[in-house]
Amino acid sequence: MTQGHNAPRIRSLTREEAEARAALVEVERYDIEVDMRGLFEGEVLQSTSTVRFRCRQPGAATFVDCAADVRSATLNGRELDLDSIEGGRIPLSDLQAENTLVVAAAQSDTGSGAGILRTVDPSDKLVYVWTSFEADDARRAWACFDQPDLKAPHAFTVLAHETWTVTSNGAPSSVEDAADGGRRWTFPDTPKLSTYVVVVNAGPFHELRQERDGYSLGLYCRQSLKQYLERDAGELFDVTAAGLAFFGDRFGQPFPQERYDQVFVPNMGGAMENWGCVTWTDSVLYRSTPTYGQRAGVAAVLLHEMAHMWFGDLVTMRWWDDLWLNEAFASWASTFAAVNATEYTDGWATFLAGLKLTGYQMDMGPASHPIRGDVPDVEQAMANFDAITYVKGESVLKQLVAYVGEDAFVEGLRSYFREHAWGNTRLADLMTAVGAAAGRDLTDWTTAWFDRSGTDTLVLRGTDLQAFGPDGQDPRPHHLRIGAYRRSPDGQGLEPAGSVQVETAGVRTPVEGLPEGADLYLVNDQDLTFAAVRTDEDSLRTMLEAAGSLPEPVSRALAVTTAWDMLLKGELSTDELLTCVLGVLGTERSPGVVEPFLALALRAAEQWSPLPAVPSQLARLATVAAGLAEDPEHRTPALRTLAASATEPAHFELLSRAAEDNTDLAWRMLVRRAALGEYDAAAVEALLARDADPDARVRALGVTAARPEESAKAEVWAEIWEKRSIPAGQPLFGLAQCFWRPTQHDLLLPWTHRYLDEVGTLAGGGGMLAAGSLVRSTMPTTADEAWLERARAMAAEPDQNPSLRSALLTGADTLARVLRARG
């Protein structure tokens, strides 16, 4: 992804600069005219930003952010010297008590994803433009004080091509023909918002609307995907309405505007919580009927971004050291809402079986950091956009709910939102509100959980629960449950034998009331805390053998994830892990955990097994997947796993029958055959001809990527790294999975080093969130010691971008563990 011509010179705002500017300046409002007509056939977005602001010390100086080509700038009617602009900053001197700044600018870097992205749909050549400004990319579109604690109303006027629809943070107040061509969209004032959560999108969108409970709900996508949006619209509207009602009730105030839009856009890596107008990747409009797990994932993203309307948009943390708690909160609130207000009632088990593993894995590696870490500048904040913030953060908030009680936590949130609406806060404000509602002083708890990195280990020895902090530190306080289970009289399963709630204090906590004579003591049953857990040898053996007969999905997920943690730490072999997870899959019926378990088993069999054992381990998985495919509820994820692990003619015969009317499965089967050296060019062309997906070419490239041939790898590599032609998000990640086949280790080793060559060319500045996504999506899944040494050396370079450093450290740590597991 190319960087803008001015990207290398754009400076990253420091915390000290932000504090000084916030002490000096209060922004009254933004009136921003955006001309997007030049994007219909070209690459230039033009803007005129009028900023009205007060200065608390008349005569003082500061700067405004504008990382675009400034055409003119006036302060209180006085022309500013454009030659003084440096690092994306316009100096402002001799400020008055009341000031008006007008800046006209143009941005031609609209193809890199640095705040603005113009995309041409390859299927029909229609153009779509979206903006996404977290953390500090609003300055790339127009002049603004681009920091989260200088909130102000924004009023947008947007000029766009006459065929385009424009979306922003609310409903337009008027749409009129412009005298010089196109149409003028006028939007009323937003509430007081941070600069990173305003938005302007444009294009010939397909639009669907429904009225629900007094809200006008909108869904938008590109024209080539309208059939998929229409297929999914019913559930999207249902979950949106349920979420608005649930959060409005639990948070003590309804979402305060009628309009709530969601815009599915091309070539976006994730989703963004713009006030009243969420943008997210259109790769979640799946081109085949989505599975339960995919639908649950979409609901989770939808509710996550919606939760930000309260925590992040309504009330905003002052600086990025606290502000990343937004993501932890939104993730926790998403699961909380899914379990209580949607059909996805196994949400906590799904979270544990899938995402939580990424939090544990990162927290045990060299890129671990506190949830609230030192963030001296915005560039460092972007490095914290990771599994610690999202996943560990969600887990820690779940632990806080267990610690203080759900009622107290919810009452604390209501007080927090009520007191700080449209303002900025620090973490202490939230914890004070929760602590007051619970009648507990959370000062030490906050320090232990938010200001320290690493994972505690909890070990049950007899009737003592021992807690060990990371790296010899004191352990944190934990509120958890220990479940006791006995083998059933027929010896075929496990039955509950009681449970006990424990609140740890220090390194040793006596457990009172622990049932005697159990065959399995499951530490952290119900998964209330974030900790590695271990139990006695007899319990471990029972857990590995009989995890599938535990009565609750979250308990079964805990057993499997405990085994996975032991694999990562060299305490368990891949074969033992697979025996556990495949045993669970043999009887598992909760769709919320079947899919993540299948994915985990495939990863273990293909990547973590000793290379000579991979075919036999995949065969084990294929047998289980073929059995699961007989259950209609699990058929699709089971067939997809079978397509990745098929080893026998019978497997391919089953897949061929199922793929006759299923293009997704047909692509997966072609990938598997290509990886086995059975590439069929005619079959690829035939499938490409009948696939209605406008991004089907990426699926065809996936078949090429899987081939064990140098020329095939080179062809795909050029598309990813040289042409940058692969859409961000799932398309890129899926293609990379096809490329990195662990069994092609010798062929791929030179390409792993090519990967490091490419990473080394990525510049800092704008688009680093997109670049970081590229780095993580294409991370190799196999390596050697030379690669590990080189990756660590690159990470250690003193001027390395923090986001890239984190990705390299995490990738190297994971692959070092993989190599150890392979022996």
From TrEMBL:
Catalytic activity: Release of an N-terminal amino acid, Xaa-|-Yaa- from a peptide, amide or arylamide. Xaa is preferably Ala, but may be most amino acids including Pro (slow action). When a terminal hydrophobic residue is followed by a prolyl residue, the two may be released as an intact Xaa-Pro dipeptide
Obligatory cofactor(s): Zn(2+)
A cellular component term, taken from the record's GO annotations: membrane
Enzyme kind, highest EC tier: hydrolase
Record's keyword terms, sorted: Aminopeptidase, Hydrolase, Metal-binding, Metalloprotease, Protease, Zinc
GO molecular function per UniProt: alanyl aminopeptidase activity; metalloaminopeptidase activity; peptide binding; zinc ion binding
Domain Aminopeptidase N-like N-terminal residue range list: 125-197
Coiled coil: none
Top-rank taxon, per record: Bacteria
Residue intervals of the ERAP1-like C-terminal domain: 520-816
GO biological process: peptide catabolic process; proteolysis
Domain called Peptidase M1 membrane alanine aminopeptidase: residue spans: 237-449
EC number: 3.4.11.2
Signal peptide (UniProt feature, chain positions): none
Annotated InterPro entries: Aminopeptidase_N-like_N, Aminopeptidase_N-like_N_sf, ERAP1-like_C_dom, Pept_M1_aminopeptidase, Peptidase_M1, Peptidase_M1_aminopeptidases, Peptidase_M1_dom, Peptidase_M4/M1_CTD_sf
Pfam families named in the record: ERAP1_C, Peptidase_M1, Peptidase_M1_N
Similarity remark: Belongs to the peptidase M1 family.
Protein's UniProt name: Aminopeptidase N
Organism from which the protein derives: Nocardioides panaciterrulae
